[in-house]
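Let us work through a complete example step by step.
Step 1: write down the sequence.
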Amino acid sequence: MTNTYIQSGAVDVKSINLSDLSGKKNYNVTGQILSFNIYEDMLFPAVRADFLFSDALGLITEFPIIGEEIINVEFVTAGYDETLKYKLHVKSIQPQQSNPQAKSTVYIITATSEEFITNGTTLVTKKYSSSASDIVKNVMKDFLKTEKNVYIGDSPKGTQEVLVSRLKPFQAIDMIRRRSVSEKYLSSSYVFYENQKGFYFTSVEYLMDNMKSKVNGRIYFHDTAPNTDTRNMNTRSLLDFKIVSQVNNTKKLAQGSLNNVVKKFDLMTGETIVTEFKNIEKQSQFKFASDKALPTNSTLYEKKYGSEPANIMIVPSSSHLPETFTAESIGAKFSFATKIAQNIFHATVYGDSALSVGDVIEIRLTDQTGATGQQKENRLISGTYLISKVRHNVLLPAGKNKEYYCGLELIKGSYEDNA
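Step 2: predict the structure and record it as tokens.
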């Protein structure tokens, strides 16, 4: 990374290359694009993108663009050394609009990873008797034929004795994801997604627990200096911060986040085993993005409203098959997911090509009051967050400086102060 001054939000777009499926026809379309977005999502198995074209060359008819093309994108935050590279297959062409004054046609091309295209044409039918990790790798390598890295962040325990019958590869992986139980982390909240480094099969707790030590300099804050001089804008300034979801205790109680019961019914013997999850007893075992994580409800509240189960779930099982541990983990998974869903935030920051889904960053906000003098830090919102979605937004206006921003969805699931 260079030591010279770089304007916040500056970006170096190396190339945006359009090619046909054979690779014989290629064209650098950087000059025909007004903006593009690259999306990474913890709840979606592949990278997606869209490109806003202002086509003054008639590419859509002369190339032509018919939905079979490949777009290779390479860009980087100005001053950084390691570039982001994405190979994307055109998925659709959005409605075209003519611009007679500019003598061009404006349209949006959406694209996605090759594996998502292959997924639509492939079916998995196979009987497995192996670990969830091995099944995921087998589906990715043997059925989707991916050459990308497949990372297992938190190997599930036990053996999956399962028949996959005529499922799309990503559907098969999602079925395994739902059945997976962590050896170490209570919630077993597994996700499968793609980011700039490859594909990840891991639990949310694992990411929070392991990535919080790698925050380094990624600490974002509202910078008041720009109010006096825009030259004081900081690369780590929060340009926008919104609360998407925070605190809904009625819903939390009704869904059984504080107390729920799981009944495992053996189809062979008719035996029923009951497992009760009480959050007040298990909360301290959850791993969040902070070492100082504290519950979102007080002990008094939990004792008063979490003493009786609010939700009862039934899990069928069969004693002649290997133990899947699903019934023992589903109550904790349900509670953890509810906590996460009620603590979702959205931030807009200057573009950083090093940011990716699964990273942990730190947010520092002050209380917005009318008081003069130094403002106190917001105890409820400030802290460390896991990035669950990233939108790399690059603007390429004609005749103007290129701009790069990142839209981040952030999840937390806990407080970091005794609020």
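Step 3: interpret the result. The chain is about 20% helix and 40% strand.
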